[in-house]
Amino acid sequence: DPFSTAANARMYRTGDLGRYLPDGNIEYLGRNDDQVKIRGFRIELGEIEARLAQHEAVKEAVVLAREDVPGEKRLVAYFTTHSVEEMADIETLRTHLQGQLPEYMVPAAYMRLDALPLTPNGKLDRKTLPAPDHSAVIVREYEAPQGEVEASIARIWEDLLKLEQVGRHDNFFELGGHSLLAVKMIERMRQIELSVDVRVLFGQPTLAALAAAVGGYRDVVVPANGIPADCTRITPDMLPLAALSQAEIEQIVAAVPGGVSNVQDIYALAPLQEGILYHHLAAAEGDPYLQQVIFGFDQFTRLEDFAHALQAVIARHDILRTGVLWEGLPEPMQVVWRDAPLSVEPVALDPAQGDIATQLHQRFDPRFYRLDIRKAPMMRLVYAQDLANQRWVGMLLFHHLVDDVTSLAVLSAEIEAHMLGQAQRLSASVPYRNFVAQARLGVSREAHETFFREMLGDIDEPTLPFDLQDVQGDGSGLEEVRQEVEADLSRRLRAQARHLGVSAASLYHLVWAQVLGKISGKDDVVFGTVLVGRMQGGEGADRALGMFINTLPLRVSVGQTGVRAGVKATHARLTALLGHEHAALALAQRCSGVQAPTPLFSALLNYRHSGTTVSSEALSAWSGIQILSGEERTNYPLMLSVDDQGEAFSFTVMTPARIGAQRLCGYVQHTLESLVAVLEQQPDLPLQQVSILPTSESEKLLVTFNATEADYPRQQTIHGLF
Prior knowledge:
Elements: H1 5-11, E1 13-14, E2 19-20, E3 26-28, E4 35-38, E5 41-44, H2 45-53, E6 58-69, E7 72-81, H3 90-98, E8 109-112, H4 147-161, H5 179-191, H6 198-203, H7 207-212, H8 246-254, E9 263-268, H9 271-282, E10 290-297, H10 300-316, E11 322-325, E12 333-337, E13 343-346, H11 356-363, E14 379-386, E15 391-399, H12 405-419, H13 433-441, H14 445-456, E16 478-484, H15 487-500, H16 504-520, E17 524-531, E18 550-557, H17 563-578, H18 585-590, E19 603-609, H19 616-621, E20 625-631, E21 638-644, E22 649-656, H20 661-681, H21 695-702, H22 718-721
Parallel strand pairs: 7-8, 13-14, 17-19, 19-21
Antiparallel strand pairs: 1-2, 3-4, 4-5, 6-7, 9-12, 10-15, 10-20, 11-12, 14-15, 16-22, 17-18, 21-22
């Protein structure tokens, strides 16, 4: 029964509460029927009626709360249209309201009437409005999971998505799922020996479809590390993830302090690590992928606590005890040390020369300073006393070769655990070699080439907005602007994503494609997208430390394609790309018609999930420690970073100062607003007609620049004026 409490629980979802609302919490207020209350939210029914009547097909609208089943009340909308022939389907009306109202104000049922019932004196007769039937409800009819596999996956969804009940036809994205939750879900399934190709989830995101695909995918079997703890000589047969001769192994061992007794493992690089190493070697000075965070410590003992905790985390994780060697080798190799002490060094600075934190940053500015990445750990902690502010300032330098955004969250949590004396609670570390094995032994090179040739083979011109071609920069000369997305726009965007059954990331990718298409004059654009890399990263990928992410090209058409179709197509292409998340960027670019050394693209999108809650206990671990500043850089000259905070969004644009990051922010913001509005009102409008120009710039281009009127003496001739 679609009017059951369970079904209605799926109908009422509110971003404000972040959970489903039981319909039993609707009640009448006062003597009039024009207000109801849901969990403390006072709802004006007239407001809903007014918004519904704004739809072009609707002539009159009435909304009321009904109790057709004792104890179960729901919002029901009744409407008439301007003509008998004019239609307004339930899905369209619900989407129209979702774009303007909070979820808890959107009716669950919609009934079209030829005319509203009236009393003899011409007033609306609410008592004779008919009870809604099954055709009035837009909801997936609940069907219980069938079999143990569906039931097991349903329990995982219920836990991850914080739902009381999930049916076999429910859609992962409509229920609020996203890529980071997908990683966690795949790991949870792996723990109960259910393996599945993650592309099924993104392509057919229902519980039943995912369960049906279980067993059709096999994880890569990771070959064991053949180097024993008491090893005195490493031979080629001990290194299943490296193709090295005995002489090359001896060369590597000789470069490690302590020799063979300090070598735990040797294996090749992951795809994005190869690209990062290339940019490290190509940089004339500095390093575009050297990251830094500056901390303030109220006491020297707090700095020592932090350093000791970080050293303990380094001891736990292979990737943090790794150096990279390449000289004289057939390909670069990662070498895991058994013991890798963190360099913690005092720096003598003169307070008379200015702010200590500023001086520390200048001394170790990644634009000029480099770490020796051949040595482990690829980290360094430097510090100086700041007497003027009664603190110690510490700067942690760490290389992007060993971390990504998920890794940093894990690293922070483990430092907290050590500072709180709770290290025993930490789960076993996950070796980074597991991911390297997945990347190198998983999808074949031939399969990668086939996919990228199909997507990029006919692209013979690069997408270079503003003619930006330098993709080997060091991150200098770029300016960065961050912008918060207004709460109502964030809510409307999520509503559209759920309605279309896609991820919010797909909408942002289409927004960025639209901006790039307009400023580069193309209907077919290609840009880089940062993939999480953990979908097929092997066991424990959701909590492993290391560089998992990968940058790969995405092609998006923004011409005559309708907006709704464009969203679906973008989601489908992102889904297909997931199956190749471990491919090398160089391979993908070679599959296009753009000839080297011309880059295929120079713009990047990084969509990341950053919504976290911090417990009071975790905060206590950082007592006396303050983050003063941090910095991330890129070799791409144009980048959009989107932060998905769970409910809200923010985004950051990084671009050369001569172009103006604020200007690009305006383009992204306006396109976001335009795209959501079109999806709500004209979803079939061609993408080509969606403007990226904010009102101020449009006014400047069309009006200000054309204000060329001038008074001329009418009595003079042209040559006379000369």
